[in-house]
Amino acid sequence: MNKFYGTGVAMVTPFQTDGQVDYNALRDLINYLIDGGVEYLVSLGTTGESVTLSKDEKKKVWAFTAEVNNGRVPLVAGIGGNNTFDVVNEVKSFDTAGYDAILSASPNYNKPTQEGIYQHYKAIAEASPLPIILYNVPSRTGSNMSAETTVRLACDFKNIIAMKEASGNFDQLNQIMRDKPSDFLLISGDDPISLPMIALGGAGVISVVGNALPRQFSDMIRLCLKGDFKSAQKGHSSVIDFTRMMFAEGSPAGVKTALKALGVCGDIVRLPLVQVSSALADKIVKETQKLAK
Hints:
alpha/beta, TIM Barrel, 47% helix, lysine biosynthesis
């Protein structure tokens, strides 16, 4: 599982001004991230606005991403939802060519019990042709996957290989690190706490900020993984304000503003998301220009 150590980027999906997927910009983004030194890419996670894409659009984006990547870095596909039956069918029908794993968020809105979350992932694990990365993000789903449920899934299913953890609960992170199988990876799902999570034994991050700052962020994460936290602290501190701006008015509107400033892709998002305010955009552009020097 060394392929999922380091910095993975939860890629944005670029759109044209008419709202259609901008495939030329997506190609530019993929090349920008790979040239920036990230270890792997995640296609159509939350940051990719996957919930606003049709099934046909998602298939095209996945296929195009695999074609452009051409085996250069590992690829992960975001496949999740709150209807277990639909998720299982999507996983079964997924064209795995060029992909190394599936990232699946815990069900949103339904607020299942821990047993419900376990059974949801059990069904996915039994159907999936690829390894699975769990994703716990209570701020979006409305429910938390407990440490006990995470460890239970990790122990019961060999193809459940990692957890993207975005709860921010360090007591929970401590429990997972203590009790998980030795080969199960704990990955930060929250950019600001990636450094302390790696200090606990985490394997890296699946990043939003990395869309705009792939070189700076992946260099910092690699220093952490080497145990050189003193050197990593400088990079960590340098992006604190930038990271705060990325989420101030919702993600991925913030990071798309930064990517537009860098000339990588536009800042169009699909409703119900909207572009950031002009005041925030000005701040993001200035900070992006400063950090990109």
